[in-house]
Request: fold
Amino acid sequence: MPAELTRARETAIRLLLEQNLAVMPVQVRKLQFPVPILFESMEGFCRVTKATVKQLQGCGYLCDGCTLVVNREGRRCHLVLYHANQPGRRLNFTLAHEVGHILLGHTHDGDGEEREANAFAAELLMPRVLALELTRRLPAGADPARELAHAFSTSLTVARLRLQSLGGAPTPLEERLLKRYSPILPDPVRPDVL
Reply:
């Protein structure tokens, strides 16, 4: 794995380990961050600033989300803007992606930065070592993608992609995450109970 993607994954794991309370699935807006981060819908931002969504589009700010750096009471603060009409699971990934840009110190959005932010978001929302542990617990006949999607509140597509990247031994950092989060992983659904 390229070093920059390893750095992104490790940054996400460290963020999870720094939380006072281990909770799954991860809800990005409820996390504690090492830097000030605020979240606001683009529509709410436009109401307050009297800007229009069309004006933001003209500045290149509209996709699923973006981050503005603002000074608030003399402190540097990151303002993550997002489209309010995204489905909840997609929105959570969008927010995780933007937090990845912030915590990885990105100053522009090139292809490499986008890959890093995606790797950060994937690891934050569905840590590889926890996905591996959950699949290990599955009873015979269970659908691994369905179980992962349910446990981590992601789409089936995301869960299928994660299943493709479960190989390899856990790192010491992942072992720490597994020890902390394993007790709160949900028990897999047994097919005969459905």
Summary: The first strand starts at residue 37 and ends at 41.
